[in-house]
Amino acid sequence: MRTPLRVAAVAALVLALAGCTGPLGGSSGSDGGGVSGPGVVAPEQPATGEDSDRGESRQEIITGTLSMVAADPLESADRARDLVEGAGGRLDGFVKEPKSQYQEASAQLIARIPSDRLDETIEELEGLATVQSLSTSSADVTRQKTDLDSRIRSLQASTDRLRQLITTAATTADLIAIETALSDREAQLESLIAERDYLADQIEYATLTIIITTPANAPTPAPTDFWSAVVAGFTALVAALSWTVIAFGAALPWLAFLALLALAVIGIIRLLRSRLRGRRPATPATAEGPPPEA
Question: Could you read off the pLDDT of 255-285 as tens digits, one per residue?
């Protein structure tokens, strides 16, 4: 008699939970992660639409690029790093290229700066060198964050209810079905939490790419009037002639080598021809007298 009473008690508990959360048994329709069996509770559907955005402040992901010119890019990069870290930020990337015979010195930083201190930090960075360009953009992710929060709450509630049901499973089949559903819900919950944490980090810290070069590597501004266009054209002509002279100087040793090789080949050919002519036998001359007179 005890077994029927126990089964009846479990069934009553499951029905009570089902009245608040949804149908029992079968596979969930839109969730795709439900499993068959008694005692398995389908998760609540997250709130969507405009109602989910109400009461939420605007959430944005800010990115930007700052290009600067400095006499010593490496030193300026170190100072920029100190400014970023002093503002509570961090560096996700830092590249320093010293000057060599093939390139000028340069540096590039990928800075993560607290979004609420971005403008202040950019003003401080602009004081380190001459600014060439600055661009920033933002993407609104309010709906995405709200949807993640809602789905996490729904899965968390479903996981808690499954943990309660697992202690009251009447049969082995019920226990296996509930454990399978619980493992699936926990995996989905961990994935959503990781996605939300990454999104929160992107919102909290703006991403600013800082590029510092020397004046020699700085891009030449486009001409804005006739005389500046003439100067730009003359500069381009001088640069082209300089490169032509350099290219000719680099090719001159090869040209001299090819010329000597050609002279050697021509000399060998002439020598062979003269030897062949010397070895030819002389053809005997045939004496012909005058024709006989009639």
Answer: 888 988 898 889 888 888 887 877 766 555 5
